[in-house]
């Protein structure tokens, strides 16, 4: 039904424009798993948004000069946007952390300030992606997840790495205690050490990137303490220590127990002491984001697409 699809696209454009007006910057929505296969599409989307931003800025300057030259002219001037800012509306079950690293590099090449908005959930690699932002916006229904990286098997299926690592460590500990069963011993014998090392590297990369991005972007404006020693300057070592603790907490399988555990805004702000912008009380923004994300999910399903980028 092309007419229905056209109406959905028109509605998506309308709500994206409303969200763009609120954040005073262009908006790009990403829905779906994060995988190296999406990188070419993501690069094209970011470049397109950057080009559109430059065109809008140039057009606005022309219209302002025309209005200044002839104040009687009735000219519709587009709203001013914050220079160098982009808002990414993200909904993802997670994916491959190496793809996230490249997506961050591409985004930061074109934009100096990045806002992440999570109307529903950004899990695993999606959580790591959000940590590269200057601000993260959520409401009381939104969720991030443990940073349990997913790695592809030989058949292309993505599996969480920490579960394998935890199980191997458990078997090794039982072996040291002399409690290993014959069946468990056979499991260890069949273990592919190269695969295990790959899982460990994915875990270490996830933690390393999260710590790096938190300090560089999320904590860049954290200059003075607010609770302990209020008003005292925050040192680089203190930022690094806070980032390391957040990375440690989010990668602790013993704390979350499940790769799919949904971590809400209260746990993130009070338990992990991560600053989140809470838009729960902004009814208009909440409605726009909810409708926008639901329409995008419906359109993705109707198109039978693995992922969806919306930016024009």
Automatic annotation (TrEMBL):
This is Serine dehydrogenasease. Coiled coil: none annotated. It comes from the Bacteria. InterPro entries: ClpP/crotonase-like_dom_sf, Pept_S49_ser-pept_pro.
């Amino acid at each position: 039904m092309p007419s229905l699809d056209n109406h959905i696209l028109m509605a998506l454009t309308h709500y994206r424009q409303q969200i763009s007006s609120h954040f005073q910057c262009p908006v790009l929505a990403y829905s779906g798993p994060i995988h190296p296969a999406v990188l070419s599409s993501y690069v094209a989307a970011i470049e397109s948004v950057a080009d559109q931003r430059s065109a809008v800025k140039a057009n606005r300057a022309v219209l302002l000069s025309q209005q200044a030259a002839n104040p009687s002219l009735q000219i519709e001037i587009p709203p001013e946007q914050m220079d160098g800012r982009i808002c990414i509306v993200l909904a993802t079950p997670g994916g491959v952390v190496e793809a996230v690293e490249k997506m961050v590099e591409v985004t930061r090449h074109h934009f100096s300030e990045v806002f992440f908005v999570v109307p529903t959930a950004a899990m695993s690699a999606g959580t790591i992606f959000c940590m590269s932002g200057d601000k993260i916006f959520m409401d009381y229904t939104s969720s991030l997840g443990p940073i349990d990286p997913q790695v592809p098997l030989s058949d292309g299926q993505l599996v969480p790495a920490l579960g394998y690592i935890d199980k191997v460590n458990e078997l090794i500990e039982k072996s040291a205690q002399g409690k290993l069963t014959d069946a468990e011993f056979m499991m260890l014998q069949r273990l592919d050490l190269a695969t295990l090392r790959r899982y460990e590297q994915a875990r270490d990369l996830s933690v390393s990137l999260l710590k790096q991005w938190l300090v560089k972007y999320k904590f860049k404006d954290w200059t003075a303490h607010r609770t302990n020693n209020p008003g005292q300057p925050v040192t680089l070592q203190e930022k690094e220590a806070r980032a390391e603790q957040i990375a440690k907490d989010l990668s602790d399988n013993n704390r979350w127990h499940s790769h799919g555990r949904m971590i809400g805004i209260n746990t993130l702000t009070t338990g992990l002491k991560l600053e989140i912008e809470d838009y729960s009380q902004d009814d208009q923004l909440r409605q726009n984001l909810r409708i926008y994300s639901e329409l995008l999910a419906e359109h993705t399903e109707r198109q039978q697409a693995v992922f969806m980028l919306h930016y024009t």
